[in-house]
Amino acid sequence: MIRELDHLVIAARTLDDGAAWVRERLGVLPHTAIGKHATMGTHNRLLSLGPGRFLEVIAVDPEATPPKRPRWFDLDTPELQRRIAESPELIHWVERTDDLEAAIVGYPVPVEITPFARGAYRWRMALTPDGSRPAGNTVPTLIQWDGAHPADALPDAGIRLEGFGQDAGRLAASFSTTSGTRTIP
After folding, report:
1. How many other CB atoms are there within 10 angstroms of residue 91's CB atom?
2. Which in 32, 33, 56, 149 has the greatest CB count within 10 A?
């Protein structure tokens, strides 16, 4: 079973807020195409971080029907809503696996495998029933792509992830860009 970084998640009040925040920090805007997640009532914009990796800006979709379950990544919690009302934030990371069922054996919290589909993309994610980031955001959310991967369709913006980790309970990441190394605290 393979597990590797798939993408980083930036939560924002709106996609425009999140895209502007990324541009201020990395010097480029996420791709303008907007993806919608009807099951979760969210939408996103993506930025390539090279082959097989991307940065996701995600926000509650104001045009979507409210989901029947809590949204992923704590997006429904008052604390995160308050923080992203002030500023977008790097909140989580997602790791890809080729065997989601095997990957959740021994996982530190209960998760439900949830299927998703949009256009050419099919994927399944191991999500907590309450929509929280797993284990207090100390472990990644797991994903298994079934076929095409969105990073393959994104234009290369020349941004590469150099590393990421937690600092005082918050995620931070460093990136190489055409103008040098940049950090998102």
Report:
1. 21
2. 56
Mean pLDDT over 33-62 rounds to 95
Rounded Cα distance, 97 and 124, in Å: 10
Per-residue pLDDT tens for 59-93? Answer: 999 999 999 999 999 999 999 999 999 999 999 99
Bridge partner list, 113: 126
- Greater confidence (32 vs 158) lies with 158
pLDDT for 85 equals: 97
CATH number of 3-94+149-184: 3.10.180
Are the C-beta atoms of 17 and 24 separated by less than 8 Å?
no
Q: How far apart are CA 145 and CA 151, in angstroms?
A: 11
Q: Which tokens is 65 given?
A: 């029907």
Taking the CA atoms of residue 86, residue 92, residue 93 and residue 99 in that order, the dihedral angle to the nearest 10 degrees is: -140
